[in-house]
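User: I'm curious what two different proteins look like when written out as structure tokens. Can you demonstrate?

Assistant: Sure. I'll show them one after the other, since each token string lines up with its own sequence. Here's the first protein:
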Amino acid sequence: MSELPTITHVSDRIAVGELAPPTSSRSVTDTVNGSHRFVISGYSLAKGMGVGKHIASDTFTVGGHQWAIYFYPDGKNPEDNSAYVSVFIALASEGTDVRALFELTLIDQSGKGKHKVHSHFDRSLESGPYTLKYRGSMWGYKRFFRRALLETSDYLKDDCLKINCTVGVVRSTIECSNLHTIQVPDQDMGAHFGMLLENMEASDVIFNVAGEMFHAHKLVLAARSPVFHTEFLCGHEGDAQEIVVNDMEPEVFKAMLHFIYKDALVEEELEATRTSTTPCISDTLTAKLLSAADRYDLTRLRRLCESHLCKDISINSVAQILALADRYHAAELKSVCLSFSAENLSAVMQSDGFEYLKENCPALQSELLKTVAGCEDDSSSGGGKSKSVWAQLSDGGDTNGRRIRQRT
């Protein structure tokens, strides 16, 4: 007997590699919109030109296609016997199956705003946008307006009609998922300039502030401050290697340099002086920086200091802050202080800071009086109070029991 052949079963293995990451896409259909106003002067002269004859606007472009408005003073339809005017929008350039939405508006020239509007926008269309098959295709109304009514309406003024046309050309785009993304780091220009300040690399000027030396760069300072620009690029300090700064503390000059190079404040230091037991607002770092900002015309630094000081406005502090704002040309802060003082005048006048204003800033009292008068005018126009602010002061208090409002 012969041997049977041995059958060996071999299992085939299919190697499965890494799966490709999933992809996605999205179809977005929207419209590219554009408008055109067509003014028809001499309407009465256009009448009688004949049924089916039109006046055309200049062409205008929307969505890559050109369009024109056609106005038929005697109507487009012979069957209407010129009883209506007709208005159409025509595709004035080559195109095939251009899908679009339209809006025609006959302007009410009386100022009442009662315009006559025919619009595809903001409403559901059963058959979708209108399709223009070729150049010369039109959409519009054969019976846009009865002519006899038009000629006695507010739409016709000085023998002139005004028609607004809006076209929205439909477009579809495909948005694909990005398989690869590149992370863009945060803006770091301030950090780089800050390193330039800290390392003192290539510095070309030294400031001596009460014996403490600060190395800096003339071009950086000139770019940030109009005052430094004048001194270094236009004035006598251009060749100076060392400049003595009087009437400024080293910590204030250091904070100012930090802002100039990094475009930011050292918030921790400002907060530390704000929450300290410093009795006088003018002794805080923020107030001293406001002075420096005014001295070197640093507009953004001034506004940052104004924002910080605004948070500290209260009955007891507003007079001091108002004086600072006036002295250092902080217009926004000054306006807030005046309004706050006018609204809480009785209490403010009893504060210690107000005595300082009376003795040292008489002009501010006059400005405060004008602000109070403005508040009284607003109050009286809305129903009014029975007694003026000044009458309340003569009584020695706020007799109306008005709550003190602190504006921050």
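Here's a second, unrelated protein for contrast:
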Amino acid sequence: MFKVFFSLPPVTASNPNPTSNPVLQVTMSRQVVRSSKFRHVFGQGLKADQCYDDIRISQMTWDSNFCSVNPKFVAMIVDASGGGSFIVLPLNKTGRIDMSYPTVCGHTGPVLDIEFCPHNDNIIASGSEDCSVMIWEIPDGGLISPLSDPVVKLEGHSKRVGILSWHPTAHNVLMTAGCDNVVILWNVARGEAVVRMDTVHSDLIYSACWNRDGSRILTSCKDKTLRVLDPRKGTVIAEKEKCHDGSRPVKALFVSNNKILSTGFSRMSERQVALWDPTNFEEPLTLQELDTSSGVLLPFFDPDTGIVYLCGKGDTSIRYFEITTEAPYVHYLSMYSGKDSQKGMGYMPKRGLEVNKCEIARFYNLHERKCEPVVMTVPRKSDLFQEDLYPNTIGPEPSVEADDWFNGKDGQPILISLKDGFATTTKTKEFKVSKSLLKTTTSSTGDKSGEIEILRKEVNQLKQGLEELTKIVKELQSKQ
């Protein structure tokens, strides 16, 4: 509920009806309504038969997403006795999940964060309280037995590892941050820690993320400071102290035009969202107070639409805002309200959405015993492809290899069109740690012919085994 105050021009002979003045009407309309094609975006939870039920979501109090999704799988951190594990399900395996469903269970301590590789839908990284980071390969149809042997194990942190983030454009580059206040950049294909930042942060790191092309890192810390870092040099480019006055965790990420959005708390424990210009960190471009709650707000940004979604841990709602170049920069759009509190959430990449239904975002909300997909939709009458809603978006192809990136080469994201939908492609089956550990999610004739050759060999081996068994049976029969 809001009021608009304005003064009318005086009634004169030349202007007997001041409200009919066209200039005044335009001014009034601008004050009351801001034009936006996303003003009517609405969220909707899917029906029970499209949810994932009877899953024991982790009870850990760590402020990470606890969930990661891509066009093939949804992964969730679950409760486990005597170690840490997470479950990986094909997207179409909805309904009740059997208690005996196999998990990824190689960690000796609880898993704190998981994230799928953006360049290969079958590869996922996990960080744990056991101080290690592990890289896993998930078979195309999902797990049929528990997975305890990682493809690569990365050891370099001295305390628990709670933050993981794959490089958006460089192949096989992973950033990890631990409770030892250290940020490490890994060349996963070699299993090596290439950059180690152990003097930048003096306290616990709350969040760490890349910008759009991976040329900068943004971190938020318990010392209430936002830092923009050069990832290869490990140096601080810009920093802002006391971005939020409260003592609770701050989350931050890059948004459009290299601006920075942060969520935190005021001194009176009111939740806040702020937008910053890293070239002038003195004052925020805008600072808005939302409500009073203890749940940490996890931000998710869609660069294609300019919408940021704020999901609170323990909340039942998702707020969404549009970021523009005009003051107040962060414009409230609406809010989705569910029934159950959120313990975590996964955010589907754009290439996994249903474009024919005008779906612009999909979240996978974790509750006490289930995972509920929530779809954000722009209401449109036409079922044709809406080009204004779906500009070319980031695809799965990396633009630079790990060695080249560490040597100073940056690469812009390779964009794809969603006009005909995105088809999940096949991948190379064999992984070699020292050479080409994590192949990209691309298919080629060479890949298929290699798979066919492997199948032929397996068939020949089976034939040979069958012939040997036939001989043994004949020999036994002749003896009788």
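A detail about the second structure: Confidence is low (pLDDT under 50) at residues 1-9, 22-31, 424-432, 441-449.
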